[in-house]
Amino acid sequence: MGFAQKIGQRAQTTEKGLRVMKHIAIGILAATTMGLMASAASAASTLEAVKAKGFIQCGVNTGLSGFSSPDDKGEWKGLDADFCRAVAAAVFGDGTKVKFTPLSAKERFTALQSGEIDLLSRNTTWTINRDTALGLNFAGVTYYDGQGFMVNAKKLPGVNSALQLSGAAVCVQSGTTTELNLADYFKANKMEYNPVVFEKVEEANAAYDSGRCDAYTTDQSGLYGIRLTLSSPGDHVVLPEIISKEPLGPAVRQGDDQWYHIVKWTYFALLQAEELGITQANVDELKASGGPEVKRVLGQEADTKLGTDLGVSNDWVVNIVKAVGNYGEMFERNVGAGSPLKIARGLNGLWTKGGLQYAPPIR
Amino acid sequence: MASQEVLREEPARGSLINDPRVRSIFIQVVAALALILLIWWIVDNTIDNLQRLRIASGFAFLKGRAGFDIADSAIAYSSDNTYGRAILVGLLNTAIVALAGIITATIIGFMVGIGRLSNNWLIRKICTIYVEVFRNIPPLLVIFFWYFGVLSVLPLPRDSIELPFGSYLNSRGFYFPRAVWGEGAWLILLAFVLGIAMSWFVARKARQRQMATGQQFPVFWTSVALIVGLPLLAYVASGFPLSFDLPKKSTFNLTGGFQVKPEFLSLYLALSFYTASFIAEIVRAGIRGVSRGQTEAAGALGLRSGPILRLVVVPQAMRIVIPPLTSQYLNLTKNSSLAIAIGYPDLTAIAGTVLNQTGQAIEPIMIMMAVYLGLSLLTSAIMNVVNAKMALVER
């Protein structure tokens, strides 16, 4: 129902005098309303809006090495940034059609809810509250993480367990699940602590580096990344305890199933490509020479509709792999052996190799 | 059509459309209705959209368990308390830093403002440099200066700088002994209140006597004796019920005593020093605004420079100073929201965390706006009372 009609209906039920007002009000507001209605209509389909503007607006971390941080040329690097590129490749056939919006933990959900970004790929933990009350939909788990602690071993020799941290000052980022887990962990273990809470990663890093806090807590992958940015990384150790489950993944707004499916299946396609051995190097070759499953995934089956049913082109998987490689390549390049972080695959290995990464079949 | 002569004598007759009074009322009513409609439409639209996006709304979240801890709290708070209480903690923290900042900024501001008018070249120049430096730096940078530049370069807890009276200074803050009140301590408090009441009474009597006879009475020293002496007497009489909890070194930090955290210290110092530079200029303008003739006349009556400043110039300057001073107090209160950059848990920081944990953006922002508005109105109201007291009483 249009705004003008709505006004009309409600005004009729009120006094006669209000009718005059109705006309005037409509006159005043008509222009504004038209504009807002137009934007409301386009918001109904994120895919159309994205295609119309020609790029995906992707919310990422302001700076977390391995996940999303700008390099010396100002280009965004990392697992989360590459995931944005993968979605752009699926939609446009071109992984560069992404604009990045760096967000603090506190800003991220409002940015997505308000439509400022189309996709949130910012090491965000999937929780029931965020999936329901916040009006989000998580598309999958691009990185299985857990919360840990880091201390300065040089200044605090002898601390080798998080259970020894009673009385410590702990640096933490506000508005995160980390902040909540921290409170729960110390309470459960009947320990005291002193939270020093910052809004931005950079501020928390600087405070920890200057010795304001005894310990730093965030997701373990984050700790490894942050350690690299400290003034003397060798002095700091990550404690063995993992105090929570932190499944990190991309999220979209609720109420747009098509866009949700595109993001979700982009993630599955990355996994499927790794499982089938499709890499950035051999994808063109496999288009012609691959087995039936490889050909189906790559959209080379005759009369295939897998891609178009999703709302993208049939060679979407080819585009994704060409742009960022498969999940394994993405992982190794950003956080694994090929990166300074050198994080082992562990839980993030494919299900065929003892990990948790598992994609439903693309058929 | 009426003729020109008729129009000149009775301009309002004829059509209502041409009546300027009716016209102006009509336009005002239309404008008011349009505004109400616009607000109603914005609210309606927001609610519609929140429902469409399936985002929770309403203030029920205030009763939910907060789940996060807050470092500085004036009232008892743990992660088991509600979001509502967490926001209250933030509100109190904002109020504490604003009040402390206002007091310090006023003291520094008055000293520097008067110093800028000093006859001493060195004092005058130092005060000018102070004003020019702090007035021209954004407050956030002043906060960072104190936090990263001054306080974080202090030594770690184990190498704390020891200060007199069992106090310590390190990068975790300033620690000093905490007073522990024993049995009978209420007597000291009672004596203190009694001392203040009696000083006030003495001051009144002394004034009346001076008005009547012209004789002066040493009010200041009598008041000091009453306010300090009476509680001391009570302390001795009730059998020394006061002991001190001294800060001690433990594994990570100093424990015990009272800790003023660096976040609070840097925010408090930054706001005080920043706002003081503006207050100094207001005070200087106020004093300059008092006609020179007043000083000369007071001098001719035989008053010395101290009493001239205290009894003649400053009371008149205050009338000029108070209105702009009020806006500086409001600025200081609002600038305290910059606390978020260094992790002091003020209202903005905590409401922001609540916003993020509940995912409800509009309600916490509304609470924040209402609180800052409330604090500002309260400050204005208090300053208006002060202003009314200071205003010229015509006889």
Termini separation of chain A: 39 Å
Number of strands of chain A: 14
Low-confidence blocks of residues of chain B? none
CATH architecture label name of the largest domain in chain B:
Orthogonal Bundle
**In the CATH hierarchy, what is the class of the largest domain in chain A?**
Alpha Beta
Sheet-strand content of chain A, in percent, reads 15-25%
Please report the distance between the alpha carbons of the first and last residues of chain B: 59 Å
Total helical elements of chain B = 12
CATH H level of the largest domain in chain B: which superfamily? MetI-like
CATH superfamily of the largest domain in chain A: Periplasmic binding protein-like II
Subcellular location (chain B): Cell inner membrane; Cell membrane
InterPro entries (chain B): AA_ABC_transptr_permease_3TM (IPR010065), ArtM/GltK/GlnP/TcyL/YhdX-like (IPR043429), MetI-like (IPR000515), MetI-like_sf (IPR035906)
Family (chain B): Belongs to the binding-protein-dependent transport system permease family. HisMQ subfamily.
Pfam families (chain B): BPD_transp_1 (PF00528)
Q: Could you explain the architecture of this structure?
A:
The complex is a heterodimer of chains A (363) and B (395). Helix content of chain A is 43%, strand content 15%. By secondary structure, chain A is of the alpha/beta class. Chain A has three domains: 3-42, no CATH class; 48-144 and 248-353, Periplasmic binding protein-like II (D-Maltodextrin-Binding Protein, domain 2, 3-Layer(aba) Sandwich), CATH 3.40.190; 147-244, Periplasmic binding protein-like II (D-Maltodextrin-Binding Protein, domain 2). In chain A, the strands form five sheets. A five-stranded mixed beta sheet of chain A has the order 10-9-11-8-12, with helices on both faces. Chain A has a three-stranded parallel beta sheet with strand order 4-1-5. Chain A has a two-stranded antiparallel sheet with strand order 2-3. In chain A, strand 2 and strand 3 form a beta hairpin. Chain A is globular, with a radius of gyration of 24 Å. Chain B is an alpha+beta fold and 395 residues long. Chain B folds into three domains: 4-52; 83-132 and 268-390, MetI-like (MetI-like fold, Orthogonal Bundle), CATH 1.10.3720.10; 181-242. Chain B has twelve helices and eight strands. Chain B has helices at 4-9, 20-52, 83-115, 121-135, 139-151, 186-213, 219-237, 262-288, 292-300, 305-335, 347-358, 362-390, and strands spanning 161-163, 167-170, 173-176, 178-181, 242-245, 248-249, 254-255, 258-260. In chain B, the strands form three sheets. In chain B, strands 1-2-3-8 form a four-stranded antiparallel beta sheet. Chain B has a two-stranded antiparallel ribbon with strand order 4-5. A two-stranded antiparallel ribbon of chain B has the order 6-7. In chain B, a hairpin with a 4-residue loop joins strand 6 (248-249) and strand 7. The longest helix of chain B is centred in the N-terminal third of the chain and has 33 residues, at 20-52. Chain B is globular. The mean pLDDT of chain B is 86. Classes of the chains: A alpha/beta (363), B alpha+beta (395). At the A-B interface, helix 2, helix 5, helix 6, helix 7 and strand 10 of A face helix 2 and helix 11 of B.
